[in-house]
Amino acid sequence: MPLGRSKDSVTSVQATIAVFSMVIGAGILTISREVVEAAGTSDAWLSVIVGSMISVISGVIIVKLCQRYPGKTVFEFSTEVVGFFLGKVISVLLSIYFVFLAAYEARIMAELVSTYLLQETPMKIMVVLFLWVCSYLVVGGINPILKSFEYFFPVIIFLIVAILGLCLTKFDIDNLRPVLGKGIMPMLKGVSSSLLSTAGFEILLVIIAFMKKPEKAMGSMLIGITVVAVINIASVVVSIGVLSIEEIRNLTWPLAELVSAIILPEASLEDFSIFFVVIWLLSIFTTCAAASYIGGLGISQTFSLDFKTTIYVLLPIIYVLSVLPEDLVDVFAAGDIIGMLWPAVGIAIPVVLLIVSSIRGKRRKVGDN
Amino acid sequence: MVKRTKTVNARIRHISVLVFCLILLVTTPGCWDRREVEDLGIVLGLAIDIDPESEDENTLKITAQFVSPHGLGRSNSMEKQGSKPFYNLNRSGENIIKILSDFNVVSSRVPNYEHLKIIIIGREVAEENSLYELMHTLLAFQEIPRNTFVVVSDCEAASLLEEESELESMPAYEIDNLLRHNQATSKKLYRQSIGDLFKEFSAGRSFAVQRIIREDTIVMEGAAVFRGEDNKMAGFLDALETEGLNWLTGEAKFAAVQIKDEEQGGNLTCTMSISKHQIKAMTEDGDLSFRVNIWAEGLLMESWTLNQNIEDPEILKEIESRISEQIKLAIETALRVLQKEYKADVAGFCKELRIEDIHLWEELMDDWDNTFSETPIEVVVDYHITGYQRRTSR
C-alpha cells in the first residue's frame, strides 16, 4: 500500500490545485509558438478556447469513470474493467507516458536554465539535482506533494498575472486582427496543438481515489481546467499582441522572450527573464514531481512493488531519458512524441474504460434482477 | 548506563551532522557560472562602421564603450582633471562574431554585453549590409538584451561615442536618455529596440530607425528608412519629413505649428497633439486606396496678428482650417518621399490592409512596397483649437 494511501485526506481544493500545478509547466512556455505555427493566423487564441473545451469534456469523462470505482486508482480498477491482461497493458502504457513526461519536464528545465541563467553549468548536473529534489518530495507520497503544490500555487499565479499585466503596455491590438479573416479553417487547424496546453489533468485518474469526498471531484476538475484555460488563452493573446505572429514563429521560448520585452521606465531592473526563469522552475518542478509520482505509483501498483523502491529505481531511468536527446531539436521532437501520446492517455483510454465499464455495469444489474 | 549511551549516540549524531554540513559547504558552492563583477568589462554602447583604413569595403570596425570604474566614483570637481568614466576600444574584421571575440584580445576584462544600451550603425554600413544579418549575429550572443536601442548615424558612428557630455557621465547614456524622452517633440522617431526590429524583420516589412547626427553636440532628429526586401537603408528622412511620418502614424505627442498671416504680416503658433488617428484601407472594385483620418487638437499659443478678435468663431474656424492644411501638407510631403523616392511602407499601411482584406493582402504581400508606391492615399486632417494660452493685445 503506497504512502499516504491510508489517510484519504485530499480535499477538493487540493485536487483543484493539483490539476493546475500538473498542467502549468513546460507547456505554456512554447504553446503560443506551436499554436501559431499550426493555425498560421492570429486566430490561434481561438484554437486554445476550443481546445480547452474539448479538454473539459474529456475531464468530465475521467471524473465519471473514477467515481464508479471509489478509492481506487486507474491502475487498480483497469483490470476490473477490461480484464487482467488488458488492464495491466493499459496501466503500463499510462505509467510509461508519465515517466516520459517527467523526463521531458526535467530536460526542458535544464534547457531553459542553460539558455537564460547558467550558460556554463553542465546540463547533466542540473538534471541530477532537479531529479533528486523531485524524488525526495515524491517518496513522501501524495500528501506532501499536494502540500507543496499549495505553497507554490500563489507564487506561480502571481508571477503569471504580473508578467501578462506588465506586458500590456506594449500590447498592440492590431496584431490580433482580423478575427477569423480567413474563415474558420485556420482556427481548427490549431486546435490539435492547443489540446496539449491543457494536457496534464489526467492526474485526476489517480487523485480522485485519495479524495475525502470524491463526489466533489467534478467541481475541482472544472475549476482547475478553467483557471488553466484562462491563463493559456491570456498568455497566447498577450504573446500575439506584443510579439506578433511572425515573430513568435522565430522564437524558441516565446513566453520568456515576452518577459524580456518588458520595459519598466526608470526601473533598475533591466531584464526580467532571469527572475522569470528562477520562479518558473517551481512550476516545472510541480509538473515533474506529479508526473514521476504517478509513473512510480502506476508501476508499483501494476506489479505490486514497494512504492519507495520503485521511485528510487525510476530515478536513474528518468535521468537517462532526459539526457538522451542530444540537442534542442531532439528535445522538441521528443516533446512532439509525448504530444502524440497524449490523446491516447487523456482521451482514448478514459473513453474506452468508461464505455466498457458502463456496459458491464448494466449487464451486472440485469443479471441481479 | 542507558542514559550514557543515549548521550553518546546524540553526540555522534551531532558530529555526523556537522561533518555532513562541512562536506556540503565544500562541495555544493562549486559554481560553473560564477562571474566576479571586478573581472567584467561592462559594455554600454557599440558603434559599427566601415573601416576607413582597410582597402576592402566589407571590413567592419566595431567600437565598444566600456565603463571605467575609476572615473565613475569621483566628485564633480575632480572629474575634469581625473580620468574619464569610460574608454573606447575598437577592432576590425569581416565578421561580427570574430570582431566581438577579438575584444577579448584588447580588453583586460571580459567584455559583458548584458547592460548594452545602444547600438549605433554608421551610414555606409546600413547602406551596404542587411540590418537583419547584423542584428541576428549580434543577438546570437545571448547576452545582448532585447531592449537595446538601435540608431543610425549620419557621420562616423564611433565619433558619437567620443562626444563628452556635460550632463551625463558617458556618451552611451547621453544617447540612451535622448532616445527615452519624446514627450515634447515629434521630430524624433518612436524608439526602436532590437526586439521591435525583429518583429519587422520577421514580417518582412519596411521600417524606420531613429537618425542621429553630430553638430556641436549630439542631435537626435530625422529617421533612416529601411526597405523590407533586403533590410538595407534606402535613405534618410529629414526632421520635417519625420514629423510628417510621426503625424501619419499617430505617434506624435506634441508639435508646434506656425502659420503666417499674409495680410497683416504676423505669425500665429498653435500646439497640436493627435487625439484620434485612423488609417483605413479601401478596396472597392479591386482598386486599393487608403484614407488617413487625423483628429488633432491644441492650444493657441501666440498670435502676433493685430486687430484680430480670436474669440470670433469665424476667425477661429479660419485658423483651424489653415493649421489643418499645414499638417496635411507635412504628412503629404513625408508620404511623397516614402512612396516615390524610397518605395518603403514604414507607416504600417500593410497592417491596415491585412485587417481589412486578408485575401487581397496575401496576394499583394510579396511585392508590397512597389504596390504601396503606386497606391493613392487621401489625407484628411481635422484640427480643433481647445483654448488660448494667453491673449496678446497691445
Molecular structure report:
The complex is a heterodimer of chains A (369) and B (394). With 369 residues, chain A is mainly α. Chain A has a single domain, classed as Amino acid/polyamine transporter I. Chain A is built from 15 helices and no strands. In chain A, helix 5 crosses helix 6, helix 5 packs antiparallel against helix 13 and helix 5 packs across helix 14. The radius of gyration of chain A is 21 Å and the shape is globular. The two termini of chain A are 36 Å apart. Chain B has 394 residues and is an alpha/beta fold. Chain B folds into 2 domains: 201 residues, no CATH class; 149 residues, GMP Synthetase, Chain A, domain 3 (2-Layer Sandwich), CATH 3.30.300.210. Chain B is built from 14 helices and 14 strands. In chain B, the strands form 2 sheets. In chain B, strands 1, 2, 3, 4, 5, 6, 7, 8, 9 and 10 form a 10-stranded mixed sheet that branches. In chain B, strands 11-12-13-14 form a 4-stranded mixed sheet. In chain B, helix 10 crosses helix 11 and helix 12 packs across helix 13. The longest helix of chain B is centred in the last third of the chain and has 30 residues. Chain B is elongated. The model of chain B has no long low-confidence stretch (mean pLDDT 81). Classes of the chains: A mainly alpha (369), B alpha/beta (394). The interface between A and B is medium-sized, with 27 and 22 residues.
Topology:
The complex is a heterodimer of chains A (369) and B (394).
Chain A: H1 12-23, H2 27-39, H3 44-67, H4 74-82, H5 84-116, H6 123-138, H7 142-167, H8 185-195, H9 204-207, H10 217-243, H11 245-249, H12 254-260, H13 273-302, H14 307-323, H15 328-368
Chain B: H1 2-27, E1 40-50, E2 60-67, H2 69-72, H3 76-79, E3 86-93, H4 96-106, E4 110-112, E5 118-122, H5 123-128, H6 131-140, E6 149-153, H7 157-160, H8 171-180, H9 194-203, E7 207-214, E8 218-219, E9 223-226, E10 233-237, H10 239-249, E11 255-261, E12 266-284, E13 287-303, H11 313-342, H12 349-356, H13 358-364, H14 368-374, E14 377-388
Parallel strand pairs in B: 1-4, 1-5, 5-6, 6-7, 13-14
Antiparallel strand pairs in B: 1-2, 2-3, 7-8, 7-9, 9-10, 11-12, 12-13
Helix pairs in contact in B: 10-11, 12-13
